[in-house]
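User: Second chain of the day. Same drill as before.
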Amino acid sequence: GPGVCYRLWAETGHSRRAKRWQPEVLRADLTPLLMELGLWGVQQSGEISWVDSPPESAVSHAMDLMAQLGAWGPQGLTNYGNALAKLPVHPRLAHMLLWAQARGAGQRACALVAVLEEPAARRDSDLGPELRQLTAAQKRRAQQLRALLPASAAVAGQPLPSSAVLLAQAYPDRIARRRTAGGDARYQLSSGSGAVLAEQDSLAHAPWLVIAGLGGAGTELRIFDALALDIAEIQQCSPELITRRESVAWDDRAQRVSAETQWRLGEILIESKALHAVDPVLRAEALLQGIRRKGLLCLPWAEDTHEWRARVARMRELSGDAQWPAVDDASLLETLEEWLLPWLAQSSSLKALLQLDLLQILQGRLDYAQQQQLDQWLPRRYTVPSGSQIQLRYACEGNPVLSVKLQEMFGCSENPAVAQGRLRLKVELLSPARRPVQITEDLANFWHNSYDAVKKDLAGRYPKHPWPDDPLQAQATARAKPRKR
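Assistant: Same format as last time:
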């Protein structure tokens, strides 16, 4: 209605502002909400009728985090999740408080939560100085939280975890390792994301961090709140955060399969050692990954293999039978597991692939009947009138090519054919020096209209070879005329 509106922003930017605020459910961290739903007995966010449905990615992220904290299971909120829900803090911090209390570090954890909830002015990202000198408000908040923690006693002989290790329990996905040596400090997070610190930040040279505050947009986030971390202390106090696994994978740089035992903190590789006893199946599958990345050209293709592929492709087209395998590049890459994988058990590098007999391997894709039909319909060699068996070229555009000396085709009035007469050959007539004279798909026309001009041009240069006036009545020959004595 009528009245006065006071807008708490500049008039210059007013026209660019959104007409309505974006609903918080579309932009907020949904982990506390998921905890609340779990207390109601809700197992899936879809069970609720929302005014604005939360993004599936945000719900999935919250569920993954709750599961990592041990608070969420197949049936929804776990007993441990119920224990976390009793503490009036974010589930991350609730987990840290209970974990710390069980190890005699509850007071230290409460101080850390107070600093995160009631931050004082700082010159950079390091939370350390603030933890060493709490404000009055932070002390009050720490005491309130301390009173809410269940009674617990540390196990004798157990080391007291540092504040950085405690923070790592709250933010296991934000443990970060430095990637660069100079300039702005770039870090890789255990979640796989990247983050950056300004060069002048007091933590900029720390090899490891655990991060509580992140912000910004783009490919790299900015680090606002963090503590320097000793990774050895994580290995001692929180070994559950580190996973050991055997990795057999393709190494693009070395162009071979890399096999090693790895110790990882999320996506961060901490340490690795060479693995000598490798499962041949895993090694072959890793090599297959490399072949897919490099493409089929990394395999030892020979002319016979290319010709075999061309013959099979033509056979598949001529017969109309889908039982003939597709042998184009895309199909071969898609079916590597079927035809190539069984032959890779003893190989681990691209260099080793050079020993493969691809023709033999690919021929295994045809059964005996198909191999017989291929040789009958599309023979590798064709017997010309002179009696010579000439190799055909199928790996070319258009019809297969028969390259033959002109004198060997005397008496042949039309282009030969294969595939039971369905596929006419393209004849490439050669001079006695085996240089192309003419390529024709109409041999009769050549003899009647072009032969005389060719004879006139070449007979003088190759007098030892026959050049009859009527080539269709002449005897085909692969030899030159015998010398006169």
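The radius of gyration is 39 Å.

User: Great, on to the next one.
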